[in-house]
TrEMBL record:
Pfam families: HD, HD_5
The protein's name: Cyclic di-GMP phosphodiesterase response regulator RpfG
Keyword Hydrolase among UniProt keywords: yes
A GO term, aspect molecular function: cyclic-guanylate-specific phosphodiesterase activity
UniProt-listed CDD domains: HDc
Segments forming domain HD-GYP: 202-397
Gene name of the record: rpfG8
EC number in record: 3.1.4.52
SMART domains in UniProt: HDc
Source organism of this protein record: Clostridium saccharoperbutylacetonicum N1-4(HMT)
Assigned keywords, A-Z: Hydrolase
InterPro entries cross-referenced by the UniProt entry: HD/PDEase_dom, HD_domain, HD_GYP_dom
Length: 420
């Protein structure tokens, strides 16, 4: 029996699934079927441990995650159309590599559109046995399961396109586990998530998966990701000067990373609007706070959830989503709220330049005077402005460089894996 305080991989995947499906429905549903195919193929193969199978099935659910980004490929890179089949696999693998707890499996995602003939015909140094198997499972779902065809009769027709051992493994797996009938009648989902329930996540793993979801906002708004990186760095520096202990500072860092997680559900035309939002648009934008709160609920990380997603609450009770008042807002919440404001003010967007130091301090002191934000923290920030901003820029530079270079790496890999 699972204790209430425990979070399983099954719960975490369902939460990520729910949140990402608010962007575009369907891709992770395909991922679930592919993961179920992989589960049965890997069990039939016999050489993988349960932990290895769990992780490979988890990465299978997210194997098409890059498709959310490259749907607008002109924003990522200008590429030859013959290479388009690899775009989402490459971008998704880089996202998994740098922003997920499954980073060691990024090559599985990278190569999931490679067949064994591709390896034979092209000189490449990235080989993933599991990626080849995922390619086979992906093909089977797209061509046969989704079309509800008689797979056993038709799969032998593609024996020249895939490894004979994969086709034999497929037939053996169905003979052993009768899994095809479950794919067609829908009962596979219960079995798949019961399998994921076997893995109890540590608090660190829960936070790592939540962070993966937070960074998936990249698929819709690069500016939001960059804002988040700066909020984390500024909030940490303020907390350090405030004298908070290492455990509390660690909470602030993670909460800051997750503070805008609800924006994954906001329409991209609002997130990226080059100008002031209308009243109706602003009301929609405000809903990210409660969406983020709900996404992070029931994960046994309520302390992190509250520090991060309540950053729009105000001391006078005029904030949102709950209208909390001064005595309900902790020091950590107040610090992240100010970090969020500062990051927005120093950020450069297509429609605005960074605000000056003097203007930022004036805005903050005016807000403090009207009992919106904490005056002590504002004074601490103002007195140490140059130091905080400089240290925050140093602190965030590595992550910002990784993020900024991701598109460059995407272009390099795309050229490498394009047919000659």
């Amino acid at each position: 029996m699972i204790e209430n305080s425990e979070v399983t991989l099954s719960q975490m995947i369902k939460i990520i699934h729910r949140a990402i499906n608010s962007v575009e429905r369907g891709l992770l549903n395909h991922g679930e079927k592919v993961a179920y195919l992989m589960l049965n193929l890997l069990k039939a193969e016999g050489s993988y441990s349960e932990e290895e199978i769990i992780n490979l099935c988890a990465i299978s659910i997210f194997h098409d995650i890059g498709a959310y980004k490259v749907a607008e490929k002109d924003k990522v890179a200008e590429v030859d159309e013959s290479a388009s089949v690899y775009e989402h696999a490459i971008y998704g693998s880089l996202f998994i590599k740098y922003f997920s707890p499954l980073s060691d499996l990024y090559k599985v995602v990278l190569t999931h559109h490679f067949t064994h003939t591709y390896y034979l015909e092209n000189e490449i140094d990235v080989i993933s046995i599991e990626g080849l198997l995922l390619n086979f499972a992906d093909y089977v779902d797209r061509m046969y399961v989704s079309e509800n065809t008689n797979i056993k009769d038709t799969i032998l027709k593609i024996k020249d396109e895939f490894l004979a051992e994969h086709i034999d493994l497929f037939l053996t797996a169905d003979s052993k586990f009768n899994f095809l009938s479950k794919l067609f009648d829908g009962s596979y989902l219960k079995e798949l998530y019961e399998f994921f329930d076997k893995k109890i996540l540590t608090r660190e793993e829960v936070l790592a998966y939540s962070q993966m979801l937070a960074y998936s906002i990249d698929f819709r708004s690069e500016a939001t990701v960059k804002h988040t990186i700066i909020v984390e760095a500024i909030s940490y520096q303020i907390g350090k000067l405030y004298g908070l202990n290492k455990k509390t500072l660690s909470k602030i860092k993670m909460a800051s990373t997750l503070h805008d997680i609800g924006k994954i559900g906001i329409p991209v035309e609002i997130l990226e609007k080059p100008g002031k939002l209308t009243d109706d648009e602003f009301e929609i934008m405000k809903s990210h706070a409660i969406m983020g709160y709900n996404i992070l609920s029931d994960l046994n990380i309520d302390d992190i959830r509250d520090i991060g997603t309540l950053h729009h609450e105000k001391l006078d009770g005029a904030g949102y989503p709950f209208g909390l008042k001064e005595n309900q807002l902790t020091t950590e919440m107040r610090i992240v709220a100010i970090g969020d404001i500062v990051s927005a003010l120093i950020g450069v967007r297509s429609y605005k330049e960074a605000f000056s130091k003097e203007k930022i301090i004036k805005i903050l002191t005016d807000m403090a005077a009207y009992k919106k934000i904490d005056s002590f923290i504002v004074n601490l920030f103002a007195e140490n402005y140059d130091f905080i901003i400089e240290e925050a820029q140093k602190q965030s530079s590595n992550l910002m460089d990784i993020y900024s270079n991701l598109n460059t790496e995407f272009k390099i890999l795309l050229k490498q894996f394009t047919y000659k």
